[in-house]
Amino acid sequence: MSLDTRLNSHDKGGVGGVAGVLATAEKVRSAVESVIEGKSETVRIALTVLLAEGHLLIEDVPGVGKTMLAKALGRSVDCQVNRVQFTPDLLPSDITGVSVYHQELHEFQFQPGPVFAHIVLGDEINRASPKTQSALLECMEEGQVSVDGVTRSLERPFMVVATQNPGDMEGTYPLPEAQRDRFMARIAVGYPSAQAELDMIDSHSSQSPLESIRPAASTHDVQAMIAEVRSIHVSPAVKRYVVDLVAATRTSSALRLGASPRATLHLVRAARAYAALDNRGHVLPDDVQALAVPVLAHRLLPSPEAQQQQRLPEQVVSDLVSRLPVPDRR
Amino acid sequence: MRRHGGFKPRVALPLAAMVTTLCAFSMLDPVFATSGWWYGSALAVLVVTGIGVALSWSRVPAILVPLAQIVGVACTVTAVYAPESAILGFLPTAASFSALSDLIALGFGDIRMNISPVPVSAGLLVVMTASLGGLGVLVHLVAVQLRLAGLAGMALLALVFVPLTVHHEGVTWSAFALTALGFLLLLAVEGSERSAGWGLRVPPSAEAKNTWASRTGSYLRQLLTTAHIAVVAVVLALLVPLAVPGMVNDAVFALASGARDGGQTVTTVNPLASLRRDITSLGDRRILEYRTSQSRPDYLRMHVLDTFDGENWTMSPVEASQRNRVDDQDLPEPDGFVTPAPDQLATTQVTVSSGTQRMDFLPLPYPTRNLAISGDWFTDPETLMVFSPRGEARGLTYEAVSAAPEPSSAALARTSATGARTVDSRYLDLPDGVDPRVRELAESITGDASSTHARAVALQNWFTSGDRFDYDLSPEPVPEGADPLAHFLFEDRVGYCQQFSAAMAVMARQLGIPARVAVGYTSGTSVSADRWIVTERNAHAWPELYFEGAGWLRFEPTPSSTDAQPSATVPGYAYPAEPDTSSPEGPGSAAQPEDSEGAGTDSESGETSAPVPGGNLADDFGGGTVVEESFPWTGVLIGIGAVAALLLLPALIRGAVRRVRWGRARDALGRSRAAWLELRDDLVDLGVEWRPAESPRGLGRRLENEYRLGSHAKESLRRIVAAEEAARYAPDPLEGRGLGSDGRTVRLALGALQSTRARITAVLLPRSLYTSRRF
d(Cα B155, Cα B131) in Å, to the nearest integer? Predict the structure, then answer.
């Protein structure tokens, strides 16, 4: 980290804005990390997705703090957080909301569903029926809700954090590739380290640490940060690098399905946010490398040979990253 | 198949295999006398490839492909060479098979009968087309179906051996290069297809991804890389055997060096051995008889021994090739040939008895001008020996027209011993180990002779006059370890024509007279006015000496007496020239040579009476001119300097590269570029791993983690990394001052952490020089 900050201190051009982003983001991050101990990289990617206007898929075994992470993120930004527990009998209207006939006013009134929030936490999204899943995914993609022929825009920032239990669990509807593709990144929280778990025992004994989180940024701040992130410079060389990397997933013999063009866009956007969180006005191949697995791996399907060899898409992607030459200046 | 599969790979590899096979045809070209032999074969290979490609598109089991291709070759052969009996002109019938098998039998006959370059006959064409079509099937099977392109080289190697074994000049370099190029193409195409399966061959730019130009470009790059490796491999393959002792004389090298020792070189029993066998034969069988217009016919020569190896005279291999074939034309003119007047030409009609030993060299008068003979006979242009690889002269009759040179002694005495020689200098070559006493003896014998001719005559007479030597067909064997020449000249003095001629030829060479030993028959005995008979006992060896302006002339050092070689005659010119010498001449004039001989033996016995171990060796070296000069200090110093310069060359080039890079860096971008490339090359030089997939920042982090750099070096490294990173990815580059000294700091700091050996290697043999490099 010391090298990075030193290198970035050389940065000129647009530093003020980026530095502002960094200051605010640091506050949010420390707030989240007060709840999720020892997972700074996970938190950083969650923040990256927030700033890159993407949606986050958290996939892990139960009880490692998936929901906690999503809640902490929502509370540390002063915005509305809604939580939806996905169950098989959940209906699309349970998410988007319904129009109800108002007896006194003699008209239909729209009762907004839980999706009308800044951060929507979809717990165990794979438990809902495909119909309900796709209702949420439409909101994710369009940033708007259409009910009874009326289209209502969702407020910005809008981020869906969905959690999913991996493995073959009974009565689940795993997200199809097309829907997984809409999530900007997938992360796993993972078990905490021994020390982090010890600390956790202490911090969780008195009261939930969520209670003590104070909002570190307003929705307005987040909007400003998002705008700032959009202005981060991406050199042609890095754009080429992203395209090459995505193309490599499409030609790799270890993959049955490569990454989509949407993945390319997501990767560049995420890299911008990642660079901003590093207090940099331009994207480096390092940002792309750090984000390649979280942004690309969940969209890929391994080939039968790779499955036989127990190679996961994550391994294939990191293998590609370690072999693809970084772009030179020409 | 992914979408990258499909059309291209299935065609590219078979096409490359076809081109490779066709290129390899060029190696066979010198074997044939006329061009145009390869059309049918090329058509067969084309058919093979076409069938291979067509069947790869259908779902035919792979095992059937070679079978179908073999059928295709058979149809091609039928269509081209026996279309009249075939259905539709190409489907073979029983009749066409029998016609083809007749042709094939003829072709094999041609192969057996002819030596390269062979005339192209219909039978040969069938054999060639069938076998080269088969080669095409083999290459297709190995390279395309089994995907073992490298192994296809073995099949091509088989083709190399054809010209190596049957053609006297072996493989021409151009044909070899063409074949190698074709093979490399095959390897490159195969490699490119294989690496395409790895999925990481990212096209140069995203826009130009699937255009034809970019694909060609990537193929070209692949080919360049292959060529890079191939050139190194070929150069190593050619150079390493030269450096490894014992490998140069390897059979393969012998084959490759023009096939002088293999192929159509004529092997014969040692002429001297057969000479001895003949001469000691009890039966005294008739070898040949001849009719000649001459009253005193000359000897009949068979072999010329031109090399003295310290013990024996041996014959250089001769080669039978098309251009040496004996035909109606005059034979080539040998060195120093004097065009004879018409009346000097003599005709000799020789009939070889049918009961002789195998005879592959013809007994002929020298110099033969024209030879009328049936069968495949060849001539060695330098010595005019006439021979045949399958030689059978038994029962043969032939007619030779020869010049009969009879220069006078006086004329020969006027020829100069100096001046530009018109004869190959190898006729003066002697090995190092010849006993120095032989030279002293030769010089003392010819001490006061004024001309080359006088020296030659003095030498000859020294052998023949008096009772100095005893003629004996079975001399005592030479003691173990003794030099046969010195033993004959100084100890034993017993021998027959072989020893006499050998000794005189060696001594003549030592006197600077080109000499060689001829083996053949004497004139034999006359049975009527123009008929002569030569028997085994007439077998003989004699020296031939070269005279400027007169050519090769025979001398006769073997004593002529009834119990020796009765038919030996001394030629008329081999007597001392009258005006030049004051001493009595003729055969009886033994006084002068006798004297010199006495002096020679005296000095020689004086030396041998006090033998010094190793004395001969010292004399050997003392005999040269080296001892006169002082030790060549300047040469040694220049040599050491050259070696040192050679050793320092890589370091100097590396320094030059550094200077050029910094010299080109004018702006911030250039400076950061130079610093970065220098950092890269320094790392490569020091043996630190360089990963193309690592970003500048990633490299910096790795270096800091793996090496305990001082804070100063760390700062320098960070500045270089930051400058390169900004130049590559940031909107504005950094200023980049002082990067040169930063580079030096990092280099020294990294070097200090490496072993001494790595440091020395980095300076003297910088690895960055032979990795691919961009300025």
Answer: 12
| pLDDT value for B203 | 40
Q: Are residues B391 and B415 in the same domain?
A: no
Chain A: residue whose CA lies nearest to B200: A248
Express each pLDDT in B217-236 by its tens digit: 666 666 676 677 777 777 77
Name which of A247, A255, A285 is nearest B695 (Cβ-Cβ): A285
Q: How far is CA B172 from CA B24, B30, B99, B120, B179, in A?
A: 12, 8, 35, 20, 11
Q: What does residue A11 show for φ and ψ, rounded to 5 degrees?
A: -65, 140
Residues B421, B379 share a domain: no
Contact B31, B189 (CB under 8 A): no
Q: Are B36 and B151 part of one and the same domain?
A: yes
Domain range for B438 is 409-515+561-611
Quick check: is B57 in a domain? yes
B197 CB neighbours in chain A (<8 A) are 253
Whether the Cβ atoms of residue A35 and residue A72 lie closer than 8 Å to each other: yes
Q: Is B94 an interface residue toward A (CB < 8 Å)?
A: no
Please judge whether B729 and A285 are an interchain contact, meaning their C-beta atoms are less than 8 angstroms apart: yes
Please identify, among B334, B369, B403, the residue that sits at the C-terminal boundary of a domain: B403
Q: For residues B486 and A330, give the distance between their C-alpha atoms in angstroms, rounded to a whole number.
A: 80
B interface test, pick of A1, A4, A7 with most B CB neighbours within 10 Å: A7
* pLDDT per residue as tens digits for the range B574-604: 787 765 444 444 444 333 433 333 333 333 3
Residue A172, by phi and psi: left (phi above 0), alpha (psi -120 to 50) or beta? Answer: beta
Q: Tell me: do B182 and B91 sit in the same domain.
A: yes
The verdict on B494 and B468 lying in the same domain is yes
Looking at the domain assignment, is residue B339 inside a domain? yes
**Domain ends where: B403, B421, B441?**
B403
Cβ atoms of residues B332 and B545 within 8 Å: no
- Do B106 and B250 lie in one domain? The reply is yes
Alpha-carbon distance B762 to nearest alpha carbon in chain A (angstroms) = 25
Residue B172 is encoded by which pair of tokens? 């021409």
Residue contact B692–A240, C-beta within 8 A: no
B695 to A284: CB separation less than 8 angstroms, yes or no = yes
The mean pLDDT of chain A is: 84
* Residue B447: pLDDT band with limits 50, 70, 90: confident
Size of interface A-B (CB pairs under 8 A): 99
Is B221 part of the contact surface with chain A (CB cutoff 8 Å)?
no
Residue in chain B nearest A303 by alpha carbon: B2
pLDDT in tens, B721-734: 999 888 888 888 87
Write out pLDDT tens, residues A140-181.
Answer: 888 888 887 888 888 888 899 888 877 656 667 778 887 888
- Evaluate whether residue B501 is within a structural domain: yes
Interface test with B, best of A231, A286, A318, A330 (most B CBs within 10 A): A286
Smallest Cα distance from A249 to chain B, Å: 8
User: Are B94 and B55 within one domain?
Assistant: yes
Q: Is there a domain that residue B623 lies in?
A: no
Q: Does domain A2-323 have CATH number 3.40.50.300?
A: yes
Task: Kindly list the residues from chain A whose CB atom is less than 8 angstroms away from the CB atom of residue B733.
Answer: none
Q: What's the complex ipTM? A: 0.81
Number of domains present in the structure of chain B: 4
Mean pLDDT, to the nearest integer, of B652-662?
Answer: 87
Q: Is residue A217 exposed (0-12), middle (13-18) or buried (19+ Cβ within 10 Å)?
A: buried
pTM of the full structure: 0.48
